[in-house]
Amino acid sequence: MSPGPRTALAAGLDVLVVAIFTLVGRRTHAEPLDPAGWWSTAWPFLVGLALGWVVVALSSQTWPTSWWHGLTVWIATVFGGMALRDMAGQGTALPFVIVATTFLGVTLVGWRLVLWFLDRRRPEPTSDPRRGRGRPPVEHTRVGDPLGLEDLHGPSDRTRGRGVVPPGDRDRVAEVLDIRQPRAPEDPRPQD
Asked: How much is the pTM?
């Protein structure tokens, strides 16, 4: 589970989302946009974000780059951020919780949904043009005639009656197949 470029992109976008959220929040409330002020607002949400990444990484053995992992990251960011803000004596008024939950949900899950949609539209590269979407090619095994049915020279599409033995051949077929012919109604019954 080594991080790759997609993991770095995911981490960068998540931190950017939290940074934008806290900058917009500070700007909306006419608070200074200095680094110390931003950090005092952002750190609880960044810790919650990191907590979400750790939960996903430990529980699924993968980095949270898919949209369904974004749900866990979002919930951890909001709950962790609000809990830490409350412990630090910062505000957690209900309107702020609603705005934070909505903004972080739309953005933390939203960018993952956009990438997921774009990934589904792009065909996967394959070395063999006969293969589709990364599936292995199907190679059929030649079965042949394991029961030897071709040797029976049975009825074909040109045979009259398609498998019904003509009356003139019934005795010969019964002898070849070693079966007893049923009695015809006009045959006399053997005496017991």
From this structure: 0.59
